[in-house]
Amino acid sequence: MSVNYGAKRVVVGAHYGLRDWLAQRVTAVLIALFTLVVLAQVLLGAGEIGYDKWAGIFSTQWMKALTFAVIVALIYHVWIGVRDIWMDYVKPVGLRLALQVFTIVWLVACGGWAIQVLWRL
Prior knowledge:
The chain has four helices and no strands. The chain has 121 residues and is mainly α. The chain has one domain (16-120): Fumarate reductase/succinate dehydrogenase, transmembrane subunit (3 helical TM bundles of succinate and fumarate reductases, Up-down Bundle). It is elongated. The termini are far apart.
């Protein structure tokens, strides 16, 4: 017979790992499909590859929307991976928290820069 002292502490909820695993796969598929779309436009388009061609690819509204979705997916994909690295290999809680905050700030800054570049085209 076991004795229960206080409330049970659940560190990780059910399906927590499955949700992250699935998010990694879905975002990876979206990134891969986007890469294929861009490669198809570059390789199948007429003309020399230069700034004008790249600007033309990303100038349509549907491509800007798709690129925005991929940027968000990429940021989320990276966050899950890097967060798991910090959680698995950095044991001091203060250092791990500092690294996670730095990662979030860095990813938000990179995302903002990518959006700024995209809408400047």
